[in-house]
Write a structure and sequence with these properties.
The protein has 242 residues and is an all-alpha fold. It has eleven helices and no strands. The longest helix has 34 residues. The model has no long low-confidence stretch (mean pLDDT 93).
């Protein structure tokens, strides 16, 4: 029995690189925790009664969702990256890198996406039904701004997880194929979005992966992701009250 187990270990575990193995297993666990514990439904079931006397209670589940995502998809993977793989966080994209390329692509991508978002909202009603995720914030600009800042934390955490933790963490083992590896869970996580957005997430993930590798930073992808998401909320809100 022991000999058989030893042979299996040598057959399946001999060439496994420790950092890549840890990142892949941690990614599966963290995404599972995210889907289970970071949802608005979980907040409504377990915590809503503790916050019901605070202003704008409809927004509380979304703040919970956005901010706790910062734990499961940013803080925890950052700790795993730093202390588990023994690789500096700079090498996971926590740096500005090629700023000239990064900021120019960020500005260009946002400018290009503004008319695309407007057209999408006008011709495809599910976008107006979906966004903003919290409809209660669209009647007050202060609440809307605070909501967008929390949304930014959510987007930052997503970009670090997929284009930082997974992309850079797996690059040594899988090379450029890591762009496609991180695209799979990223696209799956968009399954509940309007279909054009869900399909577009595949293209976006590949392009943001290339941008991250070219700039050696996930920060520009986070900026693009947040700016486009915020633009969607603004366009939908303006058209709703127009």
């Amino acid at each position: 029995m022991n000999l058989h187990l030893q042979r299996l270990r040598e057959k399946y575990l001999h060439d496994w690189e420790r950092p890549a193995t840890l990142i892949l297993l941690a990614a599966a666990l963290l995404l599972m925790l995210h889907r289970h514990y970071n949802r608005t439904r979980f907040f409504r079931i377990h915590f809503a009664t503790f916050f019901e006397n605070l202003p704008l209670p409809e927004s509380h589940p979304y703040y919970y969702w956005f901010l706790t995502t910062g734990i499961t998809l940013c803080c925890l993977p950052a700790l795993i990256a730093k202390y588990g793989t023994k690789i500096h966080l700079r090498d996971y994209g926590f740096r500005l890198g090629n700023q000239k390329l990064g900021w120019s692509v960020t500005a260009a991508a946002w400018i290009v996406m503004i008319p695309i978002v407007i057209c999408a909202v006008l011709v495809y009603p599910p976008f107006s039904e979906k966004y903003p995720l919290c409809k209660a914030v669209d009647a007050n600009w202060q609440a809307f701004l605070l909501y967008q800042l929390a949304y930014g934390i959510y987007m930052f955490s997503w970009e670090f997880f997929f284009r930082g933790f997974m992309l850079f963490g797996l690059e040594r083992q899988f090379g450029k194929y890591t762009i496609l590896i991180q695209t799979i869970p990223f696209a799956v996580m968009h399954y509940s979005k309007p279909m054009p957005e869900a399909i577009g997430s595949i293209v976006a993930s590949v392009l943001l992966g290339v941008l991250a590798l070219e700039t050696r930073s996930f920060l520009y992808g986070a900026a693009i992701h947040w700016l486009v998401a915020m633009t969607m909320d603004v366009v939908v809100t303006v058209l709703r009250f127009a």
